[in-house]
Predict the structure.
Amino acid sequence: PLQSITFRDCRKITDQAIAHLIHECQNLASLELFECTKLSDESLVGLGKNARLEHLIFSGSPRVSDSALGAFVAPNLTTLSIEKCSAITDAGVGALVSGVCGPRLTHLSLAGCEKLMDACFAPVAEKCTNLQCLDLTRCEKISDAALAPLTNPAAGPMLTHLTTLILQDCIRVTSTSLTALPTSLKVLKLRRNEALSEAALGQLAAQCPQLEELHLCSFTNLAIANGRFPALKVLNLSNCVYLRSTDIGANAPNLQSVDLTNCRSLPDVGTVSFSNCLSLRVFTARNCALFSDLGLRPIIEKCSQLVHLDISYTDVGETGLIDVGTRLPDLEALYAEGLKATDSGISALVATLGNLRRLSIAHCSDVTDGAIQHIATHCPKLIHLDARCIRRVNDLAMNAIANNLSSLCYLDVRSPAEARVSDASVIQLASKCTLMQTLELGGHAVGDNSLNQLGNH
């Protein structure tokens, strides 16, 4: 019997269809309804009568009101997402969590419920005693006052099982709230345009010693130095465009993943602390315009466990690229888009990267088919190759790919100029790379024969 169903953007589905589904699929344990905009209170209340339902996503339904939440039962529900249900208010959330399902909920998402205010948080904190994950993304009217119950001694301990809190784009929640977070927290996601001081980060480190994931995205100003994060494994500072320095690597020795995407003001000296993270496996400096060979060198010299590296659109030169190949022979994914690399540099890079599975050299405008041939010869485990907009791709390159990369699933060789790939090489590629799922050939001189062969693939 059917136990799990997902509908996405099915805007014609009606309450009558959901009623029929409830009647026919009485063993349904998981139902996900994304942007099914015609559904109303009738569907939500009906689903609440299913005693077997454990997981429900009811997202993007503007017709759902507070009255449906008050009548919603679902006695065995543990995961509920009612995000982007724009008519819901604090009263509805209070009625929901005060009902049968409140104490059983472990995951609750109210993301994008734009009418919610501070009053919605207190009943959640009081009634959802087993809650592990709470998502309040884009609840822009919620402020520091919402989190105040967590620090009220008279109320007793609240949300003691909470491990994940998502407050992205809650623009009225400030650094003040960092001292009110549950000590059990392991994942915190913030995304705001507000300054965050060293003192605030120090308080966070002291308040949440078990923190394993910290996402501080799109801050206009971010100062990180004080505070030790002994359990931290994932750090995301993406889009902090004015970040100029961070010492967090020296205070988070167990970091495994760092994302600095679009930290365009961060110089080499600002990344040095991450070379202290000897367990680092994923490092992303994409579009960090000031990141160069000087910043890359200490990281690849000390962080020998790196398997994923993204240095696209940085100032890393050919010397740095060659060092990557020498220092990181076990690398599995390398994104080096938009770098000033040549065929000789790419050839030297891949000579020792026999375990590489994903490679992107898109927009490396000085690279030609010669580099592609070396890649195909030395990286036999590749499943993903992106060579968009390099100087030249021809049949020699395509034949090398076909003859050496039998596991390839994704290939992008779109070219705005000097397009020299013919039907013959595409036909050979189709016959030999039988696992291919995505092939991008824009700009090349291929015709019906290629299309017919690919149609039989």
Q: What stands out?
A: The CA atoms of residues 90 and 120 lie 4 Å apart. Residues 15-24 form the longest helix (10 residues). The chain has a mean pLDDT of 91. The longest strand covers residues 4-8.
